[in-house]
Amino acid sequence: MTAVTERWPSLGNNVAYLLDSMPVMLASEKRRKRAKVASEVANCGYCGSKDVYYYGVNVHLLAIRRAEQLPRPEYLEVTADSNHDLTVLEGLAPFLRQGSLYADKAYSDALVLQILAAQESTIQTPIKKAKGQERLHWFEQLFSTAVSRVRQPVESFFNWVEEHTGIQCASKVRSLKGLNVHVFGRLTVAMLLLNFNS
User: Fold this and answer.
1) pLDDT tens column, 32-89
2) Which residues pair with residue 134 across a beta bridge?
3) Residue 33: partners with Cβ closer than 8 Å, 6 or more residues away
């Protein structure tokens, strides 16, 4: 499955970008090891926010944060769960303009800093605990909480897409073509609804 990009007009420099992903599940935890549908792109994965193992794909979203509105999507990509988030970031780097990227701890990496520096951008992620560290210092906790609050709208966006399209449950899909129709058809509906409601 190749990257699908939806572009909106430039909103200027120094924007706040939000980056996250959500699972599209072809098989639940109990059936994930026997699942074979769309094996060209799908595989077994784990969703930390739902604390569930599954068989399926991930939808990655880069969006621009907007005050008191759902974020505006800039880039969408569908990948196998085995694709590391850093690989996805390399693909979306050309779509970043000067600004700050807010992402989860998976993106806290020296390579990410190099990629973003080339785009004249910075990254803000919650702070990882050092090996053997039991808890973060109070100011590290405060910073991590602040980053999570900035990122919260992208989670609201995914919840909104799921509520309006039911995209995450793809258990009736029986082929790669069916998976493409399920994912991209529902994303198209969501983007149309977002544009009409903006």
Assistant:
1) 888 989 999 999 988 887 888 999 999 999 999 998 899 999 888 888 877 767 777 7
2) none
3) 44, 55
Full-model pTM = 0.83
Residues 6+ apart with CB under 8 A from 161: 22, 167, 186, 187, 190
Rounded Cα–Cα distance for residues 168 and 149 (Å): 24
The 10s digit of each residue's pLDDT in 47-61 is 887 888 999 999 999
Distance, CA of 155 to CA of 54 (rounded, Å) = 19
Question: How far apart are the C-alpha atoms of 29 and 16, rounded to whole Å?
Answer: 35
Name the CATH superfamily for 15-197: Ribonuclease H-like superfamily/Ribonuclease H (3.30.420.10)
3-state DSSP call for residue 59?
strand
Measure the CA–CA gap between 107 and 119, rounded to whole angstroms.
16
Please name the amino acid found at residue 105: K
